[in-house]
Amino acid sequence: MASSAQVAASVDQTLALLNGQDYVADRRLATAVFLALRLRRPLFLEGEAGVGKTEIAKVLAAGLDRPLVRLQCYEGLDTAAAVYEWNYPRQMIEIRLAEAAGDIERSELSHDIFTTRFLLRRPLLQALSPEQGVPPVLLIDELDRTDEPFEAYLLEVLSDYQVTIPELGTIRAETPPIVVITSNRTREIHDAIKRRCLYHWVDYPDAARELEIVRRKCPHVAESLAREVVGFTQRLRTLDLFKSPGIAETLDWAEALVALDRIALDPQTVADTLGALLKYQDDVGAITPEIAARLVREAQADPLKA
Q: Are the C-beta atoms of residues 146 and 189 closer than 8 Å to each other?
């Protein structure tokens, strides 16, 4: 298994790690990842949906040969789903069996059922105390979807890499996991969380980098079509849309065009497949035939210039 020390020997090596997993990163992002690995600090990635934030954690897990533990956040997330809970049905069976045997004191039984044998380990506890002993990559995905009380709970985890279970005490990680936190910025994350992390804004890629991503992720797409797809998408992002297409949408669109046996863009094909790029009806409706035709002409004339 590759260690963080080996990977964090330089920014160039970190860039090579990402590149080796077909993640086309710029140097600023590679520097943020390098520092997170070297300093053992959580990496907080913020940006629009679909720009590759979650993929960073997956790439690190694959590149470092570590397990990936993912905590998908949502409104109402609590410790029972994120950290641990007791296996109550199994505890009740243990109590019934003990009562039937009649040879265990109630106080002793109460102590016995609150042991790790009855503990259901959720993502945070799995990351801090991995069963195989290998510190994983912990992905806390879309933290902005949770409530502020859960953010407050995370402070202990991110500061000391530990959680407290009243019945068992404090469980601290022997070796901290690599922590990646993502946010789509649907709301602001509290400063107390951000202070414990290294921060990086993941932006939309420029045309050259997006083309390289399409080449890596969709190698069966013809070069000329890939250039037109990137050129069109880059220009689409300059329009006043509710939600501009991310990299994920660019890749989906390229795949859709190949499935339709298209070798070049045309206004009718664009109109028929806009649902792969845009996810809101107002945005789809804003791309009139005239706008689509203009963007196609521009993309074909000079694909990598937005």
A: no
Number of domains in the chain: 3
Write down the pTM of the prediction: 0.88
Examine the domain organization and report whether 138 and 30 are in the same domain: yes
Determine contact, residues 111/76, Cβ cutoff 8 Å. no
Residue 202, SS3 per DSSP: coil
pLDDT along the chain (306 residues), means of 10: 56 94 95 95 95 96 96 94 89 75 60 80 94 92 94 91 90 94 94 95 95 96 96 96 95 97 95 95 95 94 74
At position 56, the amino acid (one-letter code) is I
How far is it, in rounded angstroms, from Cα 173 to Cα 70?
A: 17
Q: What are phi and psi of 142, to 5 degrees?
A: 60, 55
CA dihedral defined by 200, 215, 279, 260, rounded to 10 degrees? -170
Same domain assignment for residues 222 and 195: no
With H, G, I as helix, E, B as strand and everything else as coil, classify residue 180. Answer: strand
Tokens 């995370």 locate to: 154
Amino acid at 302: D
